[in-house]
Amino acid sequence: MNQPNDRRRKGSSLRRDPDYAPIPSRTRKVGLAVSIGAVALATAIVVGSLYNIQIRNGEMFSRYASDQQLLDSTIQATRGEIYDATGKVLASTSVVWDIWCDPSYSSALYNSQTLTGTDEAGQETESTVRTLDAAACAEISREITLRLLSGDGVSLDSVNTASAEYTQQYEKVYAALSSIDSSYQVLAEKVNNAVKESIEEYVSTRNAAQGTGRLSVSSSRTYQRNYPYGAFAAAVLGFTNADGDGAYGLEKSYDDVLSGTDGRTITIRNARGNAIADSSAVTYDAKDGNSLVLTLDSTIQEVVEKYLVEAVAANTVENRGCAIVMDVNTGGILAMASKPDFDPNDPNNYTANQAYLEELVRAEPELYGIYLQNEDGSYVTDEEGNRILDPEADYSGYFRDIMWKNKTITELYYPGSVFKVITAAMGLDSGKASYNTTLNCSGAYAVAKQTYHCAGRHSHGMQNLADALRNSCNIYFIQLGQRLGAQTFYDYFQAFGFTERTGVDLPNETSYMQYYTDQNMGEVELASSAFGQSMAVTPLQVCTAIAASVNGGYLVTPHVVDQIVDANGNVVQQIGANVRRQVISETASETIRQIMEYEVGDGTTQSGGYRAYVAGYRIGGKSGTSELLNMDRRADGDYKKAASFVAVLPADDPEILVYVMLDDPNNVNSDYSSVLAAPVVGNIISEIAPYLGIATDGIDRSGTTVKVPNLVGTEWSNAQVSLNIRGLAHHLVESTTDNTAAPVTWQYPTAGTTVPSGTTVYLYTEGYGGQTTEVPDLTGKSADFARQMLLAAGLNCTIEGDSQGLVQSQSAAPGDRVQLGTIVTITCG
User: Fold this and answer.
1) Is residue 134 classed as helix, strand or coil in its secondary structure?
2) Fewest CB atoms within 10 Å of the CB: 163, 611, 714, 765?
3) pLDDT tens, residue by residue, 727-750
4) Is residue 521 pLDDT above 90, yes or no?
5) Given a cut of 50, is residue 557 above it in pLDDT?
6) Which residues contact 388 (CB under 8 A, 6 or more apart)?
7) Strand partners of residue 828
8) Cβ(107)–Cβ(213) under 8 Å?
9) Smallest Cα–Cα separation from 429: which of 476, 493, 502?
10) Roughly what angle, to the nearest 10 degrees, separates helices 586-600 and 420-430?
11) How confident is the model at residue 587 (pLDDT cuts 50, 70, 90)?
């Protein structure tokens, strides 16, 4: 009964639902064709892409893949150091750290709150809102600031939390930490390792504590260029920029030598960009930079800078001063300074000299002036029609440029009478003059329509070459220039190097010189050029030319670097003397030495250079007071001046040259370089000549006595000049206040005391009584050792008896306290 029904159900299950019509054959064919086409198109696209990726641009995509898979890390090379001639480090590189944080990941800095809501579609949403935890941020900022300012990460109690420095640093840290939506904020740059480790320990300890939240602070290794002596030889050393590249001075000119070559490490990295341990990793070691050993001697540089700073201040020098000490035979520069200058540790900071710089740019409007303008662009003028400086102008760029300039090679000046040494050398070598050539000076001399006078309108009468140089007679040298003629004068001028750079191994030496050639040098131009008042040159050009005049006639290339050495101290390159050419004969050079020594004399004759004399040494020299024709005149209508002096010693066989130039001094008593610049040179010589072991004049002064002059009330550097000339040494006692341009208030030995030649006189610039020192026990010591002990104690010494024996007695008992400078007599036997 049931089978038929079962079969019907089975049959009905095989039938098509009558509600669905069969797919037409045409439609099936079209669908199939579209499907096949789509597959073919997709296949073509894939094949095309594979061709493009693997064949056509395979190299490029392989590189992209490598970049994603490989981690290429730079190994930074360490910059080479700079040493002075004695091995003192003048510039070095140290590892420092930048401290940064991730505020967005530092849950210790904020409170989080989850908010729910609905979006436009009515869906439920959640969002997290962060609110700064001001108390926690303040506490963390305080702890980090204390460590940053401690210097060692330990001496937190020594930090003055009431100071402006603390407030500034705290506010910087707090502002960084409170940026809770930021993932990177710098807290401090270039901190030492001790501070870095102290901060890391604090963060680690805090994070380990329960319920304090997470604090994310990290550090990045970097390098810092250090100049341990600050504003010392700054114009020579220069500085590096923020990227560690040389930007000025030796740092720039020897950047390729100092910088070295960075290394690389190439390894595999994971998806997060972190390195994976990889045995096939490749490392290319960094090659550290080579170091420089200079001809510069820090002891000599210190002496030069001390007296140059004093001269600039004491004589109110408007446009800075500069000085050079150079080996006349090799061209090695022992000292080079421009003052005021800058601290290469912070080269953009000019605040220490801001008052001076502001006065300078306003005093030289033709060089630095930013003038006030009307709305139509015309200049605002005063009642006399002079343009008015804009009191609100930004001079900061000028300030930095002035400070950074190495005045000895970047600025031109008229050398004035110093150039007469060169004109004399021309005359001697050409045969147009000799030591005994006489020419007349009647006080005035006409050339074309120009009438020339000597300084002070002196009439010198008949004089030979040596007298003319000592008298600094313009008229004599005008006539000597006429004897030479324009062609010969220019040929020598060129040979002495005045038409080209000196070639010194420092950057930014100017190539812009102002001079007349043989083609445009008329009678007037020749006349004024012969005494140094028409051609503008650099101080270093003058020094190299003077050196050639006295060293036998050889023009040498000046240089500051003596050696280039590698990290192990091996000499990579030796920079020796480079003789460019012989300019004058040995005979002419010998005569120049004689007349320059005659100019300085022995300190007893009031010659132009007597203030540069230091008893015991043979010194040749020449002063030069030039008019700055390219500058606006002073208020009194006279030209601004440049005062310079150059000395060579020993005069009979020169080893070194000492040069000082003061640009636009405003000393109320004198304009003359013999008064302003010569004393500076003499004071420098008095300290560096004994240090260098320069040969003395050979005169035995051991039995000579000298009466100490009264120096109270005299500016201390000028007081020293009086002592130099008399054969007495000097020592300026440090003051609690600034000694600059200060008068002597006390001296010991006192005025009128008769003392042995060579005795040191101690000078004070504050107070009316001297300091005392303890007398050492000299018994049983050799005479020479006892003298050294007394010198170290600040005492003078005289010896009686056998100077080769041992000390038997001393005039001041051991342990007694006596005035600095007291003469202690020791008896030897």
Assistant:
1) helix
2) 163
3) 999 999 998 888 888 999 999 999
4) yes
5) yes
6) 371, 372, 379, 380, 381, 382
7) 801, 807
8) yes
9) 493
10) 140
11) very high
Give the residue from 215, 254, 246, 276 showing the smallest Cα distance to 560.
254
pLDDT at 268: 65
- Give the span between the Cα atoms of 8 and 360, in whole angstroms: 119
Strand partners, 579: 556
% of the chain residues with pLDDT over 70: 93
With tokens 């004969």, the residue in question is: 585
pLDDT tens-digit map of 683-733: 999 999 999 999 999 999 988 999 999 999 999 999 999 999 999 999 999
DSSP assigned state of 682 = H
User: Whole-angstrom Cα distance, residue 682 to residue 615?
Assistant: 10
> Rounded to the nearest 5°, which phi and psi values hold at 90?
-100, -20
Task: Return the SS3 of 530.
Answer: helix
Amino acid identity at 749: P
- Name the nearest CA neighbour of 461 among 475, 482, 446, 478: 475
Write the single-letter amino acid at 179.
Answer: S
In angstroms, rounded to a whole number, what is the distance separating the alpha carbons of residues 228 and 94?
A: 12
- What pLDDT was estimated at residue 68? 59
Contact 265, 649 (CB under 8 A): no
- The tokens for 329 are 């035979």
The answer to whether residues 744 and 768 touch, using CB atoms and an 8 Å cutoff, is: no
CA dihedral for 220, 221, 222, 226, sign (positive or negative)? positive
Measured N-to-C along each axis, helices 354-363 and 396-404 cross at an angle, to the nearest 10 degrees, of: 100
* Beta strands at 291-294 and 82-83: parallel, antiparallel or unpaired: parallel
d(CA 602, CA 610): 7
